[in-house]
Amino acid sequence: MLVKIAHYYYELGMTQEEIGKRLLMSRQKVNRIIKSLRGKKVVTIKINGYDETYVGLEDSLEKEFSLKEVIVTSADSQDVLIDKLSDAAALYLERTIENNEIIGISWGTTLSSTAAKLKSLRKKEISVVQIVGGENLQDPSLKADEITRVIANKLNGTPYLMYAPAIVKDKRLKTDMMNEQSIKNIFNLIKNCTTAVVGIGNLTEDSTIYKQSYLTKGNLQKLKEQECVGDICLQPYKISGEVIKDDISNRVIGIGADDLKNIPRVIGIAGGKEKSKAILGALRGGFIDVLVTDNITAENILKIKNEE
Question: pTM score, two decimals?
Answer without folding.
Answer: 0.85
